[in-house]
Design a protein that fits this description.
Helix content: 25-40%
Number of strands: 6
Number of helices: 8
Oligomer: single chain
Strand order of the largest sheet: 1-2-6-3
Distance between the termini: 35 Å
Shape: globular
Strand content: 5-15%
Order of helices and strands: HEHEHHEHEEEHHH
């Protein structure tokens, strides 16, 4: 526990709001890395950086220029923090592989090296909500994620046993109509088509929206 506590404090001192650990040996085959790279990297550290409420509140029914800038800055900060945490782990004699916060490796399938969202769920940071995002009970969906793979034998955190409950704030505001009452019915195609529309209109230069992120504030902040 000592190393895990040290890592958590180190990450929090760098500005991280959410910290969780998961053992991912059973799902490593889903990651887009070579078998040799993943051979003994059985643990992941999931880090969450809170987004600015002020920036999110400026969003109406489409992404804003300031949200696009904020989104990119959050990813850059997460990558820097993951770099520093990885070096901290290496200084303790273990391996560490920081996975970029936002990097597409297969544009046709829109996939990354791994799903930060799924890792965050396994690490107890949040649960998958109706909006198809990772939702933390306190922060809602108002955070970004990054992941570090390691062979450091860290104690995994428990998954959060929670869900959206009666909250349906994201459904009515979704500009694509992609969010449904049952999270299993989330329409990925409608969502992605709307993201492409936003990009094609040059509202932003990336496939992002932010409308449902704004709507998902977390319990006690509705």
């Amino acid at each position: 526990m000592q190393l895990k506590d040290e890592l958590k404090k180190f990450a929090q001192d760098l500005g991280i709001s959410l910290f969780g650990v998961a053992c991912v040996n059973a799902i490593k085959k889903e990651f887009i890395f070579s078998d040799e790279t993943l051979r003994d990297l059985d643990y992941t550290i999931s880090l969450g950086l809170r987004l600015s409420d002020g920036v999110l509140e400026d969003i109406t029914s489409f992404p804003t220029k300031i949200y696009y800038h904020h989104y990119r800055q959050a990813n850059a900060i997460l990558d820097q923090i993951a770099f520093k945490v990885s070096n901290f782990i290496q200084s303790k004699g273990y391996k560490a592989l920081p996975v970029p916060a936002s990097q597409i490796v297969d544009w046709a399938k829109q996939t990354s090296h791994l799903s930060h969202k799924r890792i965050g769920e396994l690490a107890g940071i949040g649960f998958i909500g109706r909006n198809n995002l990772l939702v933390n009970p306190d922060l809602g969906a108002r955070f970004r994620l990054v992941t570090i793979l390691t062979n450091a034998p860290l104690e995994p955190d428990d998954k959060i046993k929670d869900d959206c409950g009666e909250c349906m704030a994201c459904i009515s505001v979704c500009p694509a109509g992609a969010i449904k009452e049952k999270k299993e019915d989330f329409d990925h195609i409608k969502c992605f088509e709307k993201l492409k529309e936003f990009r094609d209109k040059r509202l932003v230069d990336q496939f992002i929206c932010g409308v449902c992120v704004k709507a998902c504030k977390g319990k006690g902040r509705e």
